[in-house]
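Hi W., the adenosine-5'-triphosphate complex you wanted:
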Amino acid sequence: MPKQYAVIGLGRFGSAIAQALYSANNEVLGIDINEDRIDEHQDIVSHAIIADSTEELSMRNIGIRNFDTVIVSIGDNMQASILTVVILHELGVKHIVAKALNKHHGIVLSKVGATEVVYPDRDMALRIAHKLMTPNIIDY
Ligand code: ATP
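Structure:
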């Protein structure tokens, strides 16, 4: 059965995740504060809307708590990423995956309610290193 995902922040990482989930026949709502990003994503996710995820009322009105998983992919603005996770947690979102820029950011995200923290640069570096050492492994 398709799952319902919301991706907040459609930068390179958020966009790639949103497209991969949508390609696998899931429902994907893309959310970004930047209108250009939303225009770019109209045809590559189920729905794309302009909203500021640090505004609790906006997130409540979207019905964010009904999504199976919400991915927070706001990188550069740590304050916005942390506040977004706080709001999602308070609104009762069960599975919150948040992108961290560094270890300290990740620790804070976990403390305020992220169920999973990802470090895209580090994770990709480790994956490539692993692949280089085991060239015959099947990647997907
Ligand atoms: P990446 O490293 O994934 O390429 P980026 O450098 O493009 O990311 P970031 O600053 O990390 O951009 O932010 C990712 C996205 O999050 C941007 O498209 C930005 O408009 C969006 N964003 C930032 N703050 C908010 C917010 N409060 N609500 C919704 N979207 C936001």
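DSSP finds six helices and six strands in the chain.

W.
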